[in-house]
Amino acid sequence: MPLKGLSQILKPSQISTDTQDLQVYGKDWAKHLKPNPLAVVFPTSTDQVRDIVLWARKTKTALVPSGGRTGMSGGATAANGEVLVSLSRMNKIVGHDSIDRTITCQAGVITEQLQNYAQDHGFYYPVDFAARGSSQVGGNVNTNAGGIKVLRYGLTRNWVAGLTVVTGQGQVLHLNNSLVKNATGYDLRHLFIGSEGTLGIVTEVTFQVTNPPKPLTVLLLGVENLDGVLSIYQLYRQRVPVTAYEMFTEEALGVVLGQGHLKRPLAEKAPYYVLVEFEQESAETNEHAMELFEKCAESGWVIDGAVAQTPQQAREFWRLREDISEATAPFEPYKNDISVRVADVTAFLTELDSLIKNDYPDFQVIWFGHIGDGNLHINILKPKNLSSEAFLKKCHEVDQHMFAMIARFKGSISAEHGVGVTKRPYLHFTRSTDEIQLMREIKAVFDPDGILNPGKLL
Ligand code: MLT
Ligand code: ZN
């Protein structure tokens, strides 16, 4: 029995081969990938993770590190008899340091738990996204999670002050130890951030935190065209401290409203909507914002607009954007998550939109994204008359054209959802042959037996 050695490391309650568990833990939000793991294990300490890795090396068993499974590229799926290492029982906040302004968490802590803990202690953890209620911090590190506040606060990478990791060799590394300055050569911490569980298993993270922002104003604008979307962005960023700048189309709004939970926010329909969130830095900030709004209206960019009058309304505006992913899910969307330089967004979107309209007229595309950092989410909805297989085939065809376009724009085939399984064949559109070769060599150093998340990323 291949799992025999594991019972010397873990209690029976920490090992599951239950069919239901294998189905649930075996996949993430890339729902079309079929799970087929051997078992799920639930370690409760770094030492147990190390012992699992050493066992896997000895028995040549593949391991898949598993967090909140909210990834969209299949990075946490186990389809080939792997053992899933779920960090979900390592879910404690170890503590905080008010002088260093850090919070230390086990890898299975939920993002929202970290955000709330920071708030309860007078701090702010700014990396934020719709999956905050179920994603885990270890997964955030492994995918270098981005989300809705990147243009103001950066990615997960910017907030990792220290990491505890078990490498594929079974070494336990304590990286950086919350130091601000540490000029001692290669910063291995950053290699693990965004490595999608292919180099090691993150067991503990120390996050930097910051001061809470001043009160936030949320503005929703209906916009005439893409040039307007970018012009408004430029104008607002120059004059007010913007914390988020999100875009969605009328089609995306239609799908969200179709759920029946929210009402249309503006009297006038518009092809594009932008959600602008900014800090009320001083008494003049709102005045500046109103002046900007008038300027946008005079320039013909804005068709209609509203400022959230209450925290409840601000939340509703945000839900119009954040619920898009969930609202499109029943339509079997084919998801892409790409980035180009912010300055190239209009040119890229215009070119891609006309390619899809001309060559794939039966495809309904839901466009939305974090325009303020150049990240576009492109979801193609499956036409009713097309089988899932035929739809997938056509979408892969679109991918070839789109990724060639991205390569031309020097953009990325994955802005924040990662490479995982679904984007692996396309990595070369963004990373050079030399880069990919060096990545393989790095993988071989940390994981010489290839037991960690094989078939993902590389
Ligand atoms: C989002 O920004 O809503 C997420 O990345 C989810 C998605 O693309 O579906
Ligand atoms: Zn996103």
Spell out the blueprint of helices and strands.
Elements: E1 15-16, H1 19-25, E2 39-41, H2 46-59, E3 63-66, E4 83-86, E5 93-97, E6 102-106, H3 111-120, H4 137-143, H5 150-153, E7 160-167, E8 172-175, H6 188-192, E9 200-208, E10 216-223, H7 226-239, E11 242-249, H8 250-257, E12 272-279, H9 285-298, E13 302-307, H10 311-322, H11 324-328, E14 334-339, H12 345-359, E15 364-370, E16 375-381, H13 388-408, H14 433-446
Parallel strand pairs: 2-4, 3-4
Antiparallel strand pairs: 1-2, 5-6, 6-9, 7-8, 7-9, 10-12, 10-13, 11-12, 11-15, 14-16, 15-16
Question: What would you note in describing this structure?
Answer:
This protein has helices spanning 19-25, 46-59, 111-120, 137-143, 150-153, 188-192, 226-239, 250-257, 285-298, 311-322, 324-328, 345-359, 388-408, 433-446; strands at residues 15-16, 39-41, 63-66, 83-86, 93-97, 102-106, 160-167, 172-175, 200-208, 216-223, 242-249, 272-279, 302-307, 334-339, 364-370, 375-381. By secondary structure, it is an alpha+beta fold. The chain has a seven-stranded antiparallel β-sheet, with helices on both faces. Strands 5-6-9-7-8 form a five-stranded antiparallel β-sheet, with helices on both faces. Strand 15 (364-370) and strand 16 form a beta hairpin. The chain is globular, with a radius of gyration of 23 Å. Bound molecules: D-malate (MLT) and zinc ion (ZN).
